[in-house]
Amino acid sequence: MKSYNVCLKDTVKTFTKRLFYSLFDCEQEVAQQDYLEDTFLKIVSSLEIKDGNSIWESFKKELPTIRKKLDLDARAFEKNDPACECLEEVYLAYPGFNAISIYRLSHELYKLKVRILPRMMSECIHGITGIDIHPGATIGEYFYIDHGTGIVIGETSIIGNKVKIYQGVTLGGIQISKDLASTKRHPTINDNVTIYANATILGGDIVIGENSIIGANVWITQSVPENSLVTYQTEIKIRPKKNGIRE
């Protein structure tokens, strides 16, 4: 019977948390350097990934760029959320920002062809925030997630700049056949799009045009032109009164 070394999940969880801390805390960045490198090498060795040292050096060089992108994301949170009192609050108390941070870190490892570890990192933050962003997704600058619980962003999703997404949104695939694994299965969201709560957008050929607003609870399986407003129409019926009392 093959062993799958599932206790590695605990190691990755701690590594992911400390990597996140080191990105925003100067003292932690210095204090955690040896731990992060040593632990990364142990993890990739356990996953039978070659050239761990080279991968770590390439990844480490990208950390300042990742930090700059995340600072832009934090500005988007501060600008778009009326409840946000200061920028520091975003870094310390916003689960959406936490999820984006781990996405940007895991995405860089995904681009470096590191197997399994990026997915394990994304699952760590998924378990904490309820936000599921596949590390293979491509996401632009000034990305904003409000509330966030229940958001799913699939592997081949492409998201432009200044996009806002609310809780329960799914960017998914319309087909789940295994032979489509190497094709684009998830939608493209262009710049300045807002997607409100519980909207579902499915399909690799679907493009949401820039400056569009996707209303809550809509189900989309066809492309939407730029500057569009897509809403779900509800019908409200008032029950007639009988003897002055609603039936």
What does this structure look like?
The protein folds into two domains: 1-130, serine acetyltransferase, domain 1; 137-247, Hexapeptide repeat proteins (UDP N-Acetylglucosamine Acyltransferase, domain 1, 3 Solenoid). 42% of the residues lie in helices and 15% in strands. The protein contains seven helices and 16 strands. It has helices at residues 8-24, 26-31, 33-46, 52-80, 87-93, 95-111, 117-129, and strands at 132-133, 138-139, 144-146, 152-153, 158-159, 164-166, 170-172, 188-189, 194-195, 200-202, 207-208, 213-214, 219-220, 229-230, 241-242, 245-246. It has a five-stranded parallel β-sheet. A five-stranded parallel β-sheet has the order 3-6-9-12-14. It has a four-stranded parallel β-sheet with strand order 2-5-8-11, with no helix packed on it. α6 runs antiparallel to α7 (117-129). The model has no long low-confidence stretch (mean pLDDT 94).
